Amino acid sequence: MIKPINDGILIRKTDPDEMSPSGKIIMEKVPKGRRQNGEVLAVGQGHRLQDGGFTPLSVKAGDIVVFNYANGNDIEVDGEELNMCRESDIVGIVE
What we know:
Blueprint: E1 8-14, E2 35-43, E3 47-48, E4 54-55, E5 64-68, E6 73-77, E7 80-86, E8 90-94
Antiparallel strand pairs: 1-2, 1-7, 2-5, 3-4, 5-8, 6-7
């Protein structure tokens, strides 16, 4: 597995028509290259501060998020296609 650094987020893309555990549709289909939904697998330590510390990210492993697909980078890990993006690419957390 890859551990993201700083505000990096590793996401497993999911089918846009998947249902949430409560049975609600997560998101409607949108043209490829616009928005995608997925499960957060790992997050970096956060935004680096001038004093060397970090501000935590607003997402955590296990969150289902909607993200700007075109801004991230597709990578392959153990034969699985994943997306590496930054926190600013996340547009929402599905509740």
